[in-house]
Specification:
47% of the residues lie in helices and 20% in strands. The termini are far apart. Strand 1, helix 2 and strand 2 form a beta-alpha-beta unit. The chain is of the alpha/beta class and 314 residues long. InterPro entries: Peripla_BP_I (IPR028082), SBP_2_dom (IPR025997). It is found in: Cell envelope. Keywords: Signal. This is Ribose transport system substrate-binding protein.
Amino acid sequence: MKQLLSTLIAATLVAASSLATAADKEIAVIVKTTNSDFWQNVKKGSNDAASKAKGYTATFQGAASDTDLAGQVALVENAVNRKVAGIVLAPSDPDALIPAMKKAWEAKIPVVLIDSAASDAGKAYYQSFLATDNKAAGEMSAKTLIDKIGTTGKIAIMSFTAGSGSEIGRVGGFTDYIKKHSKLQIVGPFYSNSQMGTALNQTTDVLAANPDLKGIFGANEPTAIGMGRALAQTGKAGKVVAIGFDGNADLQAFVKDGTIEAIAVQSAYEMGNLGVKTVMELVEGKKVPAFRDTGVLMVNKQNIDSPAAKNVLY
C-alpha cells in the first residue's frame, strides 16, 4: 500500500510539473477584437509560429469590440494571473492598457506590441513593437488619391477608432500629406468604431451631403468595406475615387470591379507570426529590436494577382 501511495504521489507531482511547464510556455495573443478577417489572419500567423516551435502554444483572444477597453484590460490581467510565458498585444488605446502591461512587467512576463503603439508612459513595460509604419502608409494612401484626382476639390475621410495608435498614425499621415501637397478640402474624419454597418451609413450620408465629392479614404478593413458597399449602393462606384485599407476578400473584389481604386495592405499574418517568434526570443534571453516594420503594399487592379500582393492578401 505504501509503495502504491508513493507511486501515486510521484505521478501526481510529474503531472503537476507537466501542467506548470505547459502554462509557462503559453503565449497569449490579445487583439482589439476577433470580429474581422484582419485579426483572424493575425491568429493564423501566431498559431503557425507556435506550432513550429517545440514546447509553445499560442492562445488567441480579443475584446467584444475595438472600444471595449475594460474587456481588453481584463484579458491581459487574466493572462498575467495564469502566468503565461509572454503576451502579444494589440492595444485598443495607447493609455488604457498601460496599468495591465505594468502588471505583466512586474511579473517578468515579456510583452510584444503589434499593430498599435502604447504612449510614452508605457515604453518601459514592453520589449518590442511590430507594426506597419502607419504614418508612411497613410501618406502612401494620400499620394495615391492625389495622383488620381489632382490637388483641388473635396475628399472625405472615413476613419475607425478615434485615439487608437494605428488610427492616429494612419489618418494623421494621410491628413498631413493632403494638407502639405494639395488644396483638397477634407470632410470628416468620421469614426465607425470599426463597425462595417456604421461605416456604410456614414458613407451614404457623406455622399448625399457632398455630391461634388471627388475622393474618399476608408482607413481600416470594416470601414473600407462599409465605404465600398455605400459607393456601390448609391451608384457612386468608379465616380468617386476610393482608397481603402487592408486586404480581405471583400476589398479584393471591390478593387477588381473598380469600386475601390486601391487598397493599402498590411501583413496581418506577419504581425501574428513575428509577434509570437519575438516573444519566444525574449523568453530564451535573446535581444530583440525595439521596432520591426511589418510592411505595407498598395494593391490595385494592375498588381492584385502578383506574387507580392498574394503574399499579403487574405
